[in-house]
Automatic annotation (TrEMBL), chain A:
The keyword RNA-binding does not apply. PROSITE patterns: ABC_TM1. It is a multi-pass membrane protein. The chain crosses the membrane at residues 41-64, 101-127, 139-161, 189-213, 244-264, 302-326. This is Sugar ABC transporter permease. PANTHER family: ABC TRANSPORTER PERMEASE PROTEIN, INNER MEMBRANE ABC TRANSPORTER PERMEASE PROTEIN YCJO. InterPro entries: ABC_transporter_permease, MetI-like, MetI-like_sf. It comes from the Bacteria.
Length: 335, 284
């Protein structure tokens, strides 16, 4: 499992191996210098593009964000550019929109992450059998992953239409909302469920493949021993498989935390008038990422938007750490 | 009895459940096709229209001839952005991956750890500052609103470096690199004639994953290209879908066109994509 290996031995250019000492040719100083450059400095040149681009377009913006957050930075009036100190942050604490968005983000996050990972686990364990058309099934569960979120959200927008949507029609067959169809955009719960469905749809298959990969490297005799002891498939899944793939489970938990708390496209396009970025008439499903977009590029207040994104950053760090800790406990604590 | 799941043949329920999962995965795509091929009247019916109609050509013609959303040009932009980013990621990430896997230099391990750490930094959180930064880029009015703003930040990825390193570590024997070195080959020469031929499969996977991810990008292109006439196809789609009177048959016809290249990729390279994702998972 571990990629760790001994470091490759360096090709040490002994005096006889160097091209500059070829007896047929006169050792040229230029060739020598080129050789030294090639061996000693070229590696840095090869990795430089990554570090340069990351420094400029990845790291710098996040740090710079901290400075922007301490300034008044308006897109409509550049002359208002000045020091704000903690103003943006103190305003944040009293901003109902922010707390509402935080609440929504957590609600949708819980409704999407928990079922997503549990179902992915079940799907993975089903894929982890001797199956016919194995490749076909695996490629099939990956359909949502390659579908653009933009496209799938627009499809779900139609599926969750109040009067003509197929979701309400299907529910009415089950006797739900027969007299009064569910208005998926009218309440927090309904809109959260609709958006969480989109997120779950997109990520179950991808996570299942990650779990499947880990499951396949579990030694088979562990299961054989468990089966001899009388553990059924369900017990085997929870007592053997899950604890043994714990690193991948933690990885997916952290990954879906980072992704889930930054949810943007689904809440944006779930609304017919998406450009306003309000997330429902009353902000029923407005997430923080969406609010940052609204504050920054609709209300043109970049300084305040930067403060919000720093707050979100902190929230993500805390939640990801807590989640990783809990997952670690769950898998490790054998009671 | 005592058999590992990997050796157990799937039961009837196993197949049934998986088929339901596949149906659930494919349903929205099917539904997109149903709506994209129907008329307004058909879509207002209850119970809903469940079979494709014959109006696809009409709907597509409407999408491509709209007055305020230039869908064709936006598709072209998506092709440009995704191709350039993919080519660049393949080039720079295999070079860097090669350096990390097979070359010796001071600080190699520390730098590799930095690469891995950068994968956990959510770039999206810097969008406000990135937007301001783009405004300061050389050229009239900076890079916002131009394709450069979406291309340049994507030219290399930490995941790409990591992925290529893992693969080159296993796929290229050290002896081969040394032998080439003794024969007098330069580092670049070794890369070109020894490494590249050995890692073609990994490059295919990385290329597919990068293309899909770049094509599907929405938030940053919306911020920097939103409001311009020629954004990427994802932003153009959101333009199609916003307004007071949205025709969903038209929106989803556009979505169909923008999804099609990715479906084709999944059909051609599905096996490779699956393998790539699974390999990446075990090693990380």
């Amino acid at each position: 499992m571990s990629p760790t290996r001994a470091a490759p031995t360096a090709p040490r250019p002994g005096p006889a191996a160097g091209p500059g000492t070829d007896p047929q040719r006169r050792p040229s100083a230029w060739r020598d210098r080129w050789y030294r450059f090639d061996v000693r400095y070229l590696p840095y040149l090869l990795i430089a593009p990554f570090f340069l681009l990351f420094a400029v377009f990845g790291l710098f913006p996040i740090v710079f964000n901290g400075i922007v957050a301490l300034r008044t930075w308006r897109l409509d009036d550049p002359t208002l550019d000045g020091w704000a100190g903690g103003e943006n942050f103190s305003r944040l604490l009293g901003d109902g929109d922010f707390w509402n968005a935080l609440y929504n983000t957590f609600g949708i996050f819980l409704l999407s992450t928990v079922p997503q990972l549990l179902l992915a686990l079940v799907v993975a364990s089903l894929l982890n059998r001797k199956l016919r058309a194995q490749t076909w099934f695996r490629v099939g569960v990956l359909l949502p992953y390659i579908t653009p979120v933009t496209a799938s959200t627009l499809i779900f927008t139609v599926v969750f239409a109040r009067d003509t949507g197929i979701a309400n029609w299907a529910l009415s067959l089950l006797g739900i909302g027969e007299t009064e169809p569910i208005d998926w955009r009218a309440s927090k719960w309904a809109s959260w469920i609709a958006i969480a469905t989109m997120v779950n749809w997109k990520w179950i298959g991808y996570n299942a493949l990650l779990y499947l990969a880990a499951m396949q490297s579990i030694p088979r005799d562990v299961y054989e021993a468990a089966a001899v002891d009388g553990a059924g498939p369900w017990r085997q899944l929870w007592r053997i498989t899950v604890p043994m793939i714990r690193p991948v489970v933690i990885f997916t938990v952290v990954l879906s935390t980072i992704g889930g708390l930054q949810l943007f496209t689904e809440p944006m396009l779930f609304e017919p008038n998406s450009a306003a970025a309000t997330g429902g008439a009353d902000g029923e499903w407005q997430t923080i990422a969406q609010l940052i977009y609204k504050v920054g590029w609709r209300d043109l207040n970049l300084g305040y938007a930067a403060a919000m994104s720093w707050a979100l950053f902190l929230v993500i760090l805390i939640v990801a750490a807590v989640n990783a800790l809990i997952t670690n406990r769950l898998g490790g604590g054998k009671r | 009895m005592g058999r590992a799941p990997q050796n157990m043949p799937g039961s009837f329920w196993n197949y049934l459940f998986l088929s339901v999962v596949i149906a659930f995965s494919a349903f929205p795509l099917y539904w997109m096709f149903v709506i994209a091929t129907n008329t307004d009247e058909a879509l207002a019916k209850i119970p809903p229209q469940v079979v494709p109609g014959g109006e696809l050509a009409t709907n597509l013609r409407e999408v491509f001839s709209m007055q305020d959303v230039f869908f064709l040009q936006s598709l072209g932009n998506s092709v440009i952005v995704s191709s350039v980013v993919t080519a660049s990621v393949l080039f720079f990430c295999s070079l860097a991956g090669f350096a990390f896997a097979k070359l010796r230099f001071k600080g190699r391990n520390a730098l590799m750890i930095m690469v891995i750490l950068t994968m956990t930094v959510p770039n999206q959180l810097g969008v406000v500052a990135l937007y301001i930064l783009m405004g300061y880029m050389p050229g009239e009015g900076g890079w916002n609103g131009t394709l450069l703003a979406v291309i340049v930040p994507g030219l290399v990825t930490a995941f790409g470096v990591f992925y290529m390193r893992q693969f080159i570590l296993d796929a290229v024997p050290d002896e081969l690199v040394e032998a080439a070195r003794i024969d007098g080959a330069t580092t670049i020469r070794i890369f070109w004639s020894v490494v590249v031929p050995a890692v073609r499969p990994a490059m295919a996977v990385l290329g597919l994953l990068t293309f899909v991810a770049t094509w599907n990008e929405f938030q940053w292109p919306l911020i920097t290209l939103g409001g311009t006439d020629y954004p990427t196809s994802m932003v153009a789609l959101s333009d199609l879908a916003s307004g007071n009177y949205v025709l969903y048959r038209r929106v989803l016809a556009g979505a169909l066109v923008a999804t099609l290249p990715l479906l084709v990729m999944l059909v051609i390279g599905g096996r490779q994509i699956v393998r790539g994702i699974m390999e990446g998972a075990v090693k990380s």
